[in-house]
Each structure stands twice: as structure tokens, then as C-alpha cells.
Hints:
This protein has helices spanning 28-49, 83-98, and strands spanning 2-6, 19-23, 70-73, 78-81.
Amino acid sequence: MMHIVKLDKRYDGYGRFSHRVEFISYGAGARLTDQKNWIKSRNYLWTQFGPSAELHLARPELFDGVQPKWAWDDSKSAIYLKDESYTMFVLKWESWQNA
């Protein structure tokens, strides 16, 4: 299951990203599906918006002065997105669900 969080100052990544997409598993069968969706999502974002890194490394000083448009956090099974990448990701996610 995918859960979207609008970031505010309570969340890691606030100020660099606008949203966090969490992949939450409920039940034994859901874990595999969520892992597949997690990998599919990261591959799409890498292809669409270029390379990124774990949240704590996704800083402009490590990317030639440019803030990455997305990042991930393996410990939370979450992807962090900026406004444009968030919009594009949600549209892509909807197309995957309707396929």
C-alpha cells in the first residue's frame, strides 16, 4: 500500500522535499507486492529525474550544487519528492494502477 505524506517541519527532508511516499505492508502477501512497487518506483524516478541518494546524502553540496529532485530512505521504505517530481510520480503511479 502506498501512503503519501505532505512534509512539514516535523519530518526529515522538510525544506528539501515536499512529499514522502511510504510503501507500507499489511499482511504476508503484501510485503512482496510493496517491495516490487518500491523497486519499480525507484527505477522510474532514476530514469525520469536522474540519480539521487539516501535522504541523508541527497544534499546540493554532494550533487554539484544542485538539490536532487528525489531521494529515498530504505529504513522507512519511503521516497522523498520535490513538487515537480511528486506530480509526475503520482501521474505515473495512477497509470500503473489503471493498466
